Amino acid sequence: MAALLQKLSQRVLLLNGATGTNLLDKGLDPGESPSLLNVRNPQVVFDIQKAYVAAGSDIILTNTFSANPNNIQKNLLKKVITSGVKIAQRAAHSRAYVFGDIGPLGELIRPYGQLGFDEAHAIFRELARVFSDVGITYFFLETFTSMIEAKAAFLAARSFSKHVFVCFSLQDNGRTIMGETPESVAVTFDALGARGIGINCTLPEVACEAVARMARVTAVPLIIKPNAGRITIKGNTMHHTLSDADMAGLYRAFVNAGASIVGGCCGTSPAYIKRLRKKSKRLKKQNIARRCLLSSPTTVITVGKKPLIVGERLNPAGSKKVRAVLVKRDYTVYGEEARAQERAGAHLLDVNAYHVDFDECTTLENALFEVLKNSSIPVFVDTQSYDAAARVLAWYPGVGVYNSIPSQTRALRRWLPMVKKYGFKAVISLVGTRIPRSVDERMTNVERALRVARAVGFPTDDLIFDPLVFSASTERQQLEHTLDVVTVLRKRNLKTVLGISNVSFGLPNRSQLNAALATAAVKNGATFLILNPLDATVMQAISGARALFDQILVGEKAPPTEGVVRTESLVESIITGNDRMSIEHAQKLIAAGTPAQDIIDKHIARALKVVGDKYEAGTFFVPDLLRAAEASQRVLALIKKYLPRARKKGKVVFATVKGDIHDIGKNIAMLIFESAGYEIIDLGKDVSCAKIMTAVKQHKPAALGLSALLTTTMPEMGHITEEMRKHGLKTKVIIGGPNVTAAYAKRIGAFGAARTVLEGLRLMEK
């Protein structure tokens, strides 16, 4: 790896181009995985990889992108991967590095799907083990669209090698289908220790802009591996809109954006790499100063620019409301309170779900699921359970803060490596062998934490010290010591956090006391303030303190401090994905005599149209669609008994075509269609043409929805429509996926093409 890193610091390295799209006519049956050619026709795989090496690729990927147990029979999978590695090694012949290529599983992971993070991690770990056993020391994870799934794959690969590179596929709006931003991806995988981060299987202009955005937040080598434009249909074949020459002409833009590893994805060939070989390999100089960054899937926060407010209301110990619903295993309050605190001006959220009678691994995970689905800001994970912390830090799609570790050598040595493994920062409580009573005792505990952090390789810049706030009713003098420590640590450029509300515990006029301490904390330079952002007195005090001590403009607009917003209608409740309010509004409508069908037609359908419009406009993403669909499903379950049996709009059969294991889009479409009143028959993924024919004959649906993510599986759609015609089946066929077009639908005889769920619903109405 040292040699590769040295080369990366000196010049641009070239990856290979597409593999799958260059193997479509090499003996694959419709919809089959190109990885199968590793055992069925290894020579054609060798020829394409050897051509890339001859063209100038410094790195080639094994032909294993789709080699996973969801796509290839288990008894054949190991052979496919092993053969793929050996073919690539033979083609490279010491002239190029060989990276083991791993793609996504094609399933949504909790909280957005049914697959658990641990299950996904186990699958990826077994794949990584096979690669490692045959000599792979570099892993390349590509075409991921979910940070949770990518994190599962990354951690699995890291079990066998430190040399893991990761790439994401973006929509035209510059985000993943989950709404994750390039900056959040870069910050998260930088913190995890990725050797390279980038974009693949994306339009060149979108990938270029994304890499430029990544370059502003990370110094890790960046990768660009775009598609050759869009897909078009000419005659009987699919083509890409950009030629190899066109793609090579974009090389300088790729490098200027910050890429140091350049390759190609769908539609590119060895001719593209050959053209790149003639280009200058001079790197663009990157001068990224190290900063402490926190992130959620959509938000990156720079620590240190101003005091950051951490919302405290997600803790059963301090909130009767949270405690009451936690007993009922109702976690929706975490989502509601998360939204309210973010709206009121919180920059981060402290999440605690401890209850003496329940398993904290379960309660904390479910609470954090709700926070993730309903808020866009990073989190403090607040637990003293090692198992619970490890469980949620493993899957959280961002860089948060673990809260907290006592400054005791044994505890620090146990906790810090785990926190680092998952890319988090750590709060260090300045409790040593006893509660500190002076500034000196607190500083002794600071030095101990710094010493242990250096010993275990934990970045000291990622430590946040809690000097301890005691109640003024009994420990008034300790407040001076606490604030003095904040001042000392600020001068040393070390970060601090204060639990503001602790000062008023057991006292009257809590808001005024909390506001007074918050003002002093801002003056002394505290980095984080844990408090109630819905307390207007405290928030206004912080704004005033910043105006006085941080030299911000007086009159800076203070954040709103309203409480939980109660949506005014069923439509608004569904749009925001508020399950509880959706049920309440539906119950009121039923009590008022509103017909159940009117609730569907005038409320649910209207809400889903707004959600669909927002999705098409790029302001809503898959999590937003799922929240709205889940709220709709709850309302439908409530009103189902009031619906006449014959009032369903009709049946729709859904299937992901043979050879394609990616059913995320299909599953979302089914949720929305069912919410709109259709009866759904789900045939699953990797479905044979024969099974689809049988289902259409049996159910006589109003429409057949076919889904394909990969360009290599799109021809199977044409095969199915041809078989439909042969069998005399006139069912409306709607094809879906990111690459389908109206022209392709017309070419294969489908009724229409839908790249979004809303387009599919519109086609149903024609």
What do you see in this structure?
It catalyses: (6S)-5-methyl-5,6,7,8-tetrahydrofolate + L-homocysteine = (6S)-5,6,7,8-tetrahydrofolate + L-methionine. Catalyzes the transfer of a methyl group from methyl-cobalamin to homocysteine, yielding enzyme-bound cob(I)alamin and methionine. Subsequently, remethylates the cofactor using methyltetrahydrofolate. Residues 649-766 form the B12-binding domain. Belongs to the vitamin-B12 dependent methionine synthase family. The protein is an alpha/beta fold and 766 residues long. The protein is built from 29 helices and 25 strands. α7 (182-192) links the parallel β5 and β6 (196-200). α24 runs parallel beside α25 (664-675).
Describe the structure concisely for a colleague.
This protein has 766 residues and is α/β, with parallel strands linked by helices. It folds into 4 domains: 2-277, Alpha-Beta Barrel (TIM Barrel), CATH 3.20.20.330; 309-398; 564-644, Methionine synthase domain (Methyltransferase, Methionine Synthase (B12-binding Domains), Chain A, domain 1, Orthogonal Bundle); 648-766, Rossmann fold (3-Layer(aba) Sandwich). A hairpin with a 2-residue loop joins strand 8 (231-234) and strand 9.
